[in-house]
Design a protein that fits this description.
Blueprint (H helix, E strand, L loop, with lengths): L11 H6 L11 H14 L15 H13 L5 E5 L7 H13 L6 E5 L3 H5 L7 E2 L2 E2 L1
Parallel strand pairs: 1-2
Antiparallel strand pairs: 3-4
């Protein structure tokens, strides 16, 4: 899907905090919002926390979707071109976030066409003519 599947009328912080509604035990609303705000600030969106995502740029929406994807600390994250719509500074923020999540028992699989992003990964494979190398 090319859509980030965000709730356009909800704020950036509420979109990023949404998965925490399903956490067991569920954090209190203030804690959910604080966790989301910290992630979004780390991704360069500290000044956009209360903006409805329908009014954000494509790159900003992409970073909100990334925050939503990582807020629960998943053991496996599949990221299809997570930095495709981002400039170099924002790409560095996203890759820094991913790097900080690196720990035993956790994997992040990134699909990218950007050699600079691939160079920051621990392992790389190339798909050429339908073959994985």
């Amino acid at each position: 899907l090319q859509d980030h599947l965000l709730i356009d009328r909800a704020t950036a912080v509420d979109n990023a905090a949404l998965p925490l509604l399903y956490a067991q035990p569920r954090p209190a609303k203030r804690e959910r919002r604080t966790m989301a705000a910290e992630l979004l600030t780390r991704l360069g969106l500290g000044d956009r926390l209360q903006h409805p995502v329908g009014r954000l740029s494509g790159g900003e929406r992409q970073r909100v979707a990334i925050a939503r994807a990582v807020i629960m600390g998943p053991s496996l994250l599949l990221a299809d071109k997570p930095t495709g719509a981002l400039d170099e500074e924002r790409t560095d923020e996203v890759m820094g976030l991913f790097r900080s999540m690196s720990q035993p028992g956790r994997a992040i699989v990134i699909v990218t066409h950007d050699p600079a992003v691939a160079a920051r990964c621990d392992h790389t494979w190339r798909l050429r003519a339908g073959r994985l190398e």
